[in-house]
């Protein structure tokens, strides 16, 4: 079974980024985001809906909107 990346994909589109997946497992998705500042590595946890970037961790809801739960940073 593969990870559900729909919320993550919605987040990527809303930010205007593009994505290249490296690995998709039921517990983690890894790859590169192409941002205006250049490529950024990410790890997406589909069970917790958290996106780990080099400088922050972002929690998203089931629709891809950022939320500030559990003390994680939320930027938008």
Number of helices: 1
Question: Structural class, from secondary structure content?
Answer: mainly beta
Helix/strand order, N-terminal first: HEEEEEE
Low-confidence stretches: 71-76
The total of beta strands comes to 6
- Strand line-up of the largest beta sheet: 1-2-3-4-5-6
| Biggest sheet architecture | 6 strands, antiparallel
Strand content is 35-45%
Question: What Rg, in angstroms, do the CA atoms define?
Answer: 11 Å
N- to C-terminal distance: 31 Å
Shape: globular
Please provide a written account of the structure.
The protein is mainly β and 76 residues long. Helices cover 13% and strands 41% of the residues. The protein has one helix at residues 6-15; strands spanning 18-24, 29-35, 38-45, 50-52, 57-60, 66-67. It has a six-stranded antiparallel sheet with strand order 1-2-3-4-5-6, covered by helices on one side. Mean pLDDT is 90; it is low at 71-76.
Give a brief rundown of this model.
This protein has 76 residues and is mainly β. It has one helix at 6-15, and strands at residues 18-24, 29-35, 38-45, 50-52, 57-60, 66-67.
Core attributes:
76 residues, mainly beta, six-stranded antiparallel beta sheet, 1 helix, 6 strands, 41% strand, globular, disordered C terminus
What is the strand and helix layout of this fold?
Elements: H1 6-15, E1 18-24, E2 29-35, E3 38-45, E4 50-52, E5 57-60, E6 66-67
Antiparallel strand pairs: 1-2, 2-3, 3-4, 4-5, 5-6
